[in-house]
């Protein structure tokens, strides 16, 4: 039975109650306890730095050449916090209810409330680190509005908020490295979790330079390895983003939740050809001033500036008059798909919609728009050679954020004791759809404010436990399995690259388990992915050797994605309702909105791995709502 | 279009490297430079050859992991543009492109075009931070910062740590990188307490890592994807002298 370990008390008291009763570790004992943190994004870096500050021995791992590269760096628009600096009616409860509603009532009340509660602290912490947030002329912090809410609670640093927050966390981490509290292992990839007597006791890594397979033991392991949206190949994610750390932990007993809940970001650059390796994100903040439209007439090939106002369909303003262009991401993305499917799409592949700034430029002046978004307009120009101050941008939805991930309890601990999952790697706070500017927040809150309480609460019990070293047989077994798998990839000697399989898998998932899904599309995708997986193990080709070998790295990641892709489809198939980003075409209202089924599906799915040749087992964590009523989510 | 490539191949730091020739047909002008490299590697796999190793990750110009010398220029022919944001429309049919790693004594080659930039992390470790442990922070609006100061600090903080400044500098100087962090934290009120110690520690570490000194050529600013200004180097020198006189 899944125990989410929600503390006693009213919603507002739970986190305080937890902190007041948590077990502590004496400062003199902390240096006897080792913690491994995998990933150096906002969640991983902030967790490793904070635990280092407390005095624990921390080992921090990342596959990039520096911790500063982790993909949090690419988040553009902002970070939410219930500071209510704008006096516009914001509060912790308002932020909590916006987030619960934004997630379409598929997240835990207690977790979401805590996220809102800790949000104000994060802004304080980041400012103390020297994060240069935007300021008003009087010197006070500035805010802007984001999708799915009616207050201005988003703090930002131009269009590079993720970069600035990450550098703050990175610098805090580097400070601990300099103080010898944290040791970093860059260009290292976790390839297995080591479990002893049911508890996480270490990891097996591959040094991506020497190729050496290494054993690392610890009293607790933290996975902050990010999301798996790159499973679709074409996505807003970095090329190296992967699911391997969480998937390999899953195969060692950690349950996976909400696996099919993938957010498709509405404002990305559309695919323009087969060669493409990624779909660049343009910040959602652009929707504050940009208006989204398509020609009213299908197959209209005129240039956007030649189409008169009355022949334009501002479909978000038309369908959702209250929220308009700031409708939440899942709704905006689906509305775009609806217009594209109706033949009104624009651009070379007719897969895009316009994002138009002409009205905002007319009203506010070009300089004001430049100040807010110049880096995004520049990026657009670099990629497309088009000046978006004069011609509308072309945008389309792309796979972006994974609400799903490892199941965790209130302490962010997985179903394996001693294994924690933070940030996008866990499923916890966003339900079936994440609101903009909540991901930087969640990653930071997990790492700075929750893990430093919940991990010591576990570690306190480890002081008297038997110390497990890398000589333990479990390490030898895990190392052996990792080496065997790598050799297997090198031995196949087929004729197709890892990228070929990855791209094919991506297409299957976009078609079968994408913006909208049906029973038939999911069942078909499962069959096809199984075939692709079989082909992978007979026709994969890797050149090069055991040392620096990006093809060998890719092969391991694609192998895990192939398994994960099947589970995504199974998760979507089992959920016979539409909620948030999970849109099953069979379950929709007369006007095409998501139709939830709270009677049968008000739960979190938690999938248990039962072996390579067995079906996953579905466990259910019921969701109980005591502080908000389950309403139909309407942005009209 | 058809593209001829001359690429630096080097197995390991210990073995000698050399330029090797490749040809690619069917390069589209809409491809990014790295997608052209993907195409090359795909063709090498088909020929059972080892792929060209190169660093890259976000492919949207912000992570700082990519970087090559392209026809002798860091990140290629465009100014203020990362390698991943460079597109093949900047080249024409029949062009020959020379591709080499970012070279500097402090950036040893890992393999082919991959280099080790740990020296940058070491400079930050020396003191590129404010010592604000988790939980110590005061209320954010308790620290007022003028709009212009916040914007100027941001301009410096925007550095992506790619190393193009070092690669392009004839002295392999890391002063643009180091001075940007020093400026950001020297401008902000949060950075004042450690201001003097910070500049001394970071500059000393920069020297210890084997980077050269600045001789005011200003080529770094031209190549910098974030347009980090060389004026930060002047500020760094000012801060260093100030710190040496006042507090040391």
Characteristics:
heterodimer, A: 636 residues, Methane Monooxygenase Hydroxylase, Chain G, domain 1, globular, B: 248 residues, alpha+beta, Ubiquitin-like (UB roll), Fumarate Reductase Iron-sulfur Protein, Chain B, domain 2, 2 domains, 5-stranded mixed sheet, two-stranded antiparallel sheet, 8 helices, 7 strands
What this model shows, in words?
The complex is a heterodimer of chains A (about 625) and B (about 250). Chain A is an alpha+beta fold. Among the domains of chain A are: about 265-400, Flavocytochrome C3, Chain A, domain 1, CATH 3.90.700.10; about 475-600, Methane Monooxygenase Hydroxylase, Chain G, domain 1 (Up-down Bundle). Helix content of chain A is about 35%, strand content about 15%. Chain A is built from 17 helices and 19 strands. Chain A has helices at about 15-20, 25-30, 40-55, 90-100, 110-130, 160-180, 245-250, 315-320, 330-345, 360-365, 365-385, 440-460, 475-490, 500-510, 520-540, 550-575, 600; strands at about 35-40, 55-60, 80, 155, 180-185, 190-195, 200-205, 215, 220-225, 255, 260-270, 290-295, 310-315, 355, 395-400, 405, 420, 605-610, 615-620. In chain A, the strands form five sheets. In chain A, strands 5-2-1-9-17 form a five-stranded parallel sheet. In chain A, strands 11-15-14-12-13 form a five-stranded antiparallel sheet. Chain A is globular and about 75 Å long. Chain B is of the alpha+beta class. Chain B has two domains: about 5-110, Ubiquitin-like (UB roll) (Roll); about 115-130 and about 145-245, Fumarate Reductase Iron-sulfur Protein, Chain B, domain 2. Helix content of chain B is about 35%, strand content about 10%. Chain B has helices at about 35-45, 120-125, 145-155, 165-170, 175-185, 195-210, 220-225, 230-245; strands at about 5-10, 20-25, 70, 75, 95-100, 110, 115. In chain B, the strands form two sheets. A five-stranded mixed sheet of chain B has the order 2-1-5-3-4. A two-stranded antiparallel sheet of chain B has the order 6-7. Chain B is elongated. The termini of chain B are far apart. At the A-B interface, α3, α5, α6, α11 and α12 of A face α1, α2 and α3 of B. Chain A: It is a peripheral membrane protein. Chain A: InterPro entries: FAD-dep_OxRdtase_2_FAD-bd, FAD/NAD-bd_sf, Fum_R/Succ_DH_flav-like_C_sf, Fum_Rdtase/Succ_DH_flav-like_C, SdhA/FrdA/AprA, Succ_DH/Fum_Rdt_flav_su, Succ_DH/fumarate_Rdtase_cat_sf. Chain A: It comes from Mucilaginibacter psychrotolerans. Chain A: It catalyses: a quinone + succinate = fumarate + a quinol. Chain A: Keywords: Cell membrane, Electron transport, FAD, Flavoprotein, Membrane, Oxidoreductase, Transport.
């Amino acid at each position: 039975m899944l125990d989410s370990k929600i503390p006693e008390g009213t919603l507002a008291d739970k986190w305080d109650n937890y902190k007041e009763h948590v077990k502590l570790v004496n400062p003199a004992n902390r240096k006897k306890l080792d913690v491994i943190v995998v990933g150096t994004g906002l969640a991983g870096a902030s967790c490793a730095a904070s635990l280092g500050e407390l005095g624990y021995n921390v080992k921090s791992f990342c596959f990039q050449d520096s911790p500063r590269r982790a993909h949090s760096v690419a988040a553009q628009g902002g970070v939410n916090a219930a500071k209510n600096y704008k006096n516009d009616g914001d509060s912790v409860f308002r932020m909590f209810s916006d987030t619960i509603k934004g997630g379409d009532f598929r997240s835990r009340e207690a977790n979401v409330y805590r996220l809102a509660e800790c949000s104000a602290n994060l802004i304080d912490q980041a400012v103390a680190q020297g994060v240069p947030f935007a300021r008003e002329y009087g010197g006070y912090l500035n805010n802007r509005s984001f999708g799915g809410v009616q207050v201005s609670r988003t703090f930002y640093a131009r269009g590079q908020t993720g970069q600035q927050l990450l550098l703050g966390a990175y610098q805090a981490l580097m400070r601990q490295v300099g103080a010898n509290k944290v040791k970093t292992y860059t260009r290292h990839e976790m390839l297995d979790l080591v479990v002893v007597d049911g508890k996480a006791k270490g990891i097996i890594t591959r040094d991506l330079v020497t190729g050496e397979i290494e054993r690392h033991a610890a009293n607790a392991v933290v996975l902050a390895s990010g999301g798996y949206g790159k499973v679709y190949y074409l996505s807003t994610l970095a090329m190296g983003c992967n699911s391997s750390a969480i998937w390999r932990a899953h195969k060692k007993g950690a349950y996976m939740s909400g696996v099919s809940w993938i957010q498709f970001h509405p404002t990305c650059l559309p695919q323009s050809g087969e060669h493409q390796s990624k779909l660049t994100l343009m910040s959602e903040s652009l929707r504050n001033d940009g208006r989204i439209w398509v020609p009213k007439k299908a197959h209209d090939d005129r240039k956007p500036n030649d189409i008169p106002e009355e022949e334009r369909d501002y479909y978000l303003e038309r369908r959702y008059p209250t929220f308009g262009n700031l409708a939440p991401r899942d709704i905006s993305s689906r509305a775009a798909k609806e217009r594209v499917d109706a033949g009104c799409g624009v651009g070379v592949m007719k897969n895009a919609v316009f994002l138009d700034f002409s009205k905002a430029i007319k009203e506010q002046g070009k300089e004001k728009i430049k100040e807010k978004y110049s880096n995004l307009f520049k990026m657009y120009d670099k990629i497309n050679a088009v000046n978006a101050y004069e011609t509308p941008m072309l945008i389309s939805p792309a796979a972006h954020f994974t609400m799903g991930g490892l199941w965790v309890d209130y302490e962010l601990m997985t179903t394996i004791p001693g294994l924690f999952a933070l940030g996008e790697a866990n499923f916890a706070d966003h339900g079936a759809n994440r609101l903009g500017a909540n991901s930087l927040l969640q990653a930071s809150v997990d790492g700075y404010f929750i893990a430093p309480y919940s991990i010591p609460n576990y570690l306190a019990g480890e002081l008297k436990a038997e110390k497990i070293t890398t000589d333990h047989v479990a390490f030898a077994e895990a190392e052996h399995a990792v080496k065997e798998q790598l050799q297997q990839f090198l031995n196949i000697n087929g004729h197709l690259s890892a990228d070929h399989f990855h791209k094919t898998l991506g297409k299957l998932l976009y078609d079968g388990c994408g913006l909208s899904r049906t029973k038939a599309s999911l069942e078909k995708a499962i069959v096809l992915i199984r075939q692709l997986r079989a082909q992978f193990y007979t026709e994969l080709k890797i050149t090069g050797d055991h040392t620096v070998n990006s093809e060998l790295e890719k092969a391991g990641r694609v192998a895990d994605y192939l398994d994960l892709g099947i589970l995504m489809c199974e998760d979507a198939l089992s959920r016979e309702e539409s909620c948030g980003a999970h849109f099953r075409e069979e379950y929709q209202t007369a006007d095409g909105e998501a139709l939830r089924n709270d009677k049968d599906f008000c739960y979190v799915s938690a999938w248990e791995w039962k072996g390579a040749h067995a079906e996953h087992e579905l466990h259910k964590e019921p969701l109980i709502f005591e502080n908000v009523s389950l309403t139909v989510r309407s942005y009209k | 279009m058809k593209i001829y490539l001359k690429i630096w191949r080097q197995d390991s730091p210990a073995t000698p490297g050399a330029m090797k020739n490749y040809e690619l047909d069917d390069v589209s002008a809409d491809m990014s430079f790295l997608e052209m490299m993907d195409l090359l590697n795909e063709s090498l796999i088909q020929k059972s050859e080892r792929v060209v190793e190169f660093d890259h990750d976000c492919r949207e110009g912000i992570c700082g992991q990519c970087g090559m010398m392209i026809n002798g220029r860091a990140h290629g022919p465009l100014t203020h543009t990362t390698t991943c944001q460079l597109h093949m429309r900047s080249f024409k049919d029949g062009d020959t492109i020379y591709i080499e790693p970012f070279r500097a004594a402090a950036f040893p080659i890992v393999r082919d075009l991959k280099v080790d930039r740990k020296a940058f992390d070491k400079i930050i470790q020396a003191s590129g931070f404010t010592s604000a442990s988790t939980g110590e922070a005061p209320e954010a609006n308790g620290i007022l910062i003028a709009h212009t100061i916040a914007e100027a600090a941001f301009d410096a903080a925007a550095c992506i740590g790619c190393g193009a400044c070092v690669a392009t500098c004839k002295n392999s100087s890391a002063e643009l990188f180091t001075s940007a962090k020093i400026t950001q934290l020297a401008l902000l009120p949060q950075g004042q307490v450690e201001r003097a110690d910070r500049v001394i520690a970071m500059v000393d570490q920069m020297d210890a890592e084997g980077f050269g000194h600045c001789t005011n050529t200003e080529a770094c600013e031209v190549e910098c994807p974030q347009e980090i200004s060389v004026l930060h180097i002047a500020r760094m020198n000012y801060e260093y002298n100030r710190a040496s006189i006042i507090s040391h």
